[in-house]
Amino acid sequence: MTNVPNKHELVELRAEEIAGSPLVNADLAPTTIAQRTWGTYNIAALWIGMSVCIPTYMLASGLIAGGMNWWQAILTIALGNLIVLVPMILNAHAGTKYGIPFPVLARASFGTLGSNVPALLRAVVACGWFGIQTWIGGQAINAMLVVLVPSWTSLAVGPWISFALFWAMNVYFIVEGTESIRWLESLAAPFLIVVGLALLAWAYVKGGGFGPILSQPSKFTTFGEFWHFFIPALTGMVGFWATLSLNIPDFSRYAKSQRAQMMGQALGLPTTMTLYAFIGVAVTSATIIIFGEAIWDPVVLLAKFHNPFIILLAMVSLLVATLTTNIAANVVSPANDLANLMPRKISFRTGGLITAAVGVLMMPWKLLTDYGTYIFGWLIGYSGFLGPIAGVLIADYFFIHRRELKLKDLYIRGGAYEFTNGVNLRAMAALVCGIVVALIGLFINDLRFLYDYAWFVGFGVAFVVYLVLMKSSAK
Predict the structure, then answer these.
(1) Which of 9, 22, 136, 207 could form a disulfide with 4 if both were Cys (CB 3.0 to 4.6 A apart)?
(2) Does residue 277 form part of some domain?
């Protein structure tokens, strides 16, 4: 193993050192330094491709529909993304340094077998997101078919056929593997930004300039009313990328350097999210002026256009945006997480196909009933599970191990991360404490504020409990 004393250098493990271990397969094995080819542009393009998508648009427009004015919505989204950028960069460090994916990094804190618990929690959320994105993409296809074949409207199963078609597109890229994802993201990123700006230009022209569009007042008459909506909304914004803040090592393991992963993320995530959020805000505000109602679903909005060429171009753009986000954000992680469960039997492709199947079974159309279900139910709810995992990972890597891991031991039984039969009970206790405290407000009304801060509360509780338990056991 190549291991240098400088903590910012890259570490490499020879394949023969872990050959035959039941904890490794080709997809979970650490990348070699030669395989770490992603520069700042590749990482930034990855985030542009994932950020420019319909759920991002729906985040912003959902806040407008919920009562915020334009600057309140933009501030909430920008702040949420700046907050989540911190754990994103921190968790990416180990991926870049050691070339390991998220479930392998989790072995350092949860144990070689215990890592399956956070990995499966993350995988379930990803399956739900896969279903949401696939449903949205299917609706875009359905809208295109209505334009091309007007009689398609009378077909009751039309939306479901479209859903199946987009599902099949996703499966194609799953079968092709991770390198096809980098190609797709790099190609699509500039195109998606241009399309977004074109949509903003439409809102500007049809809405009579930004003056009328951005003059829509907030529905909140007091600071207390605003704050009551703002806090859970901010948690929802953090929760939006709480998934990727855990499994970012799945991508940063291919980065050339720490600088590449940090700069790529800092340039690609908050800037693109804020820009596309502004587009969502401006366009949704414009729909109030143009159509007399806030239309927060872009597929519904585009269906109101009369020019078939514009509709088709816009829908194709939505398809590309949704596809790039879905593959990168919602397939790579659960595929690796499921592979971690049985490395010798589940490959990346197999894990990805399982994700595609479970995503349908989670009935994503119910999660998109309205903005309240989307933001305050789905996003905040699962953030209460993921925040505690992030708390344990960061506490372990930076404060317990101080960025120094025994790479070989992450892939063998009986090594430094065996703990108690492969499970670190202290990490499990911290995880449970974080989840219980974060979600208890969902069941006890007087403690509702804990649920409103679910990601923050879960992260903080798990972080502190883990450090206390680990340091006390070392005495």
Answers:
(1) 9
(2) yes
Q: Report if residue 453 sits inside a domain.
A: no
Per-residue confidence band for 433, with pLDDT thresholds at 50, 70 and 90: very high
Q: How many CB atoms lie within 10 A of CB 432?
A: 15
The per-residue pLDDT for 177 is 65
Query: What is the domain extent for residue 22?
Result: 15-370
Asked if residue 128 belongs to a domain, the reply is yes
Query: What 3 state SS string does the chain have?
Result: CECCCCCCCCCECCHHHCCCCCCCCCCCCCCCHHHCCECHHHHHHHHHHHHCCHHHHHHHHHHHHCCCCHHHHHHHHHHHHHHHHHHHHHHHHHHHHHCCCHHHHHHHHHCCCCCHHHHHHHHHHHHHHHHHHHHHHHHHHHHHHHHHCHHHHHCCCHHHHHHHHHHHHHHHHHHHCHHHHHHHHHHHHHHHHHHHHHHHHHHHHHCCCHHHHHCCCCCCCCHHHHHHHHHHHHHHHHHHCHHHHHHCHHHHCCECCHHHHHHHHHHHHHHHHHHHHHHHHHHHHHHHHHHCCCCCCHHHHHCCCCCHHHHHHHHHHHHHHHHHHHHHHHCHHHHHHHHHHCCCCCCHHHHHHHHHHHHHHCCHHHHCCCHHHHHHHHHHHHHHHHHHHHHHHHHHHHHHCCCCCCCHHHHCCCCCCCCECCECHHHHHHHHHHHHHHHHHHCCHHHHHHHHCHHHHHHHHHHHHHHHHHHHHCC
Q: Is 75 among the domain residues?
A: yes
Per residue in 46-100, pLDDT tens? 888 778 777 777 777 778 778 888 889 899 999 999 999 999 999 999 999 999 9
pLDDT exceeds 60 at position 434: yes
Residue 264: closest CA among 274, 275, 251, 277? 251
Query: Count of domains in the chain?
Result: 1
What confidence tens digit (pLDDT) does each residue in 242-254 have? Answer: 888 998 999 999 9
What's residue 7's pLDDT?
Answer: 43
Whether the per-residue pLDDT at 2 is higher than 60: the answer is: no
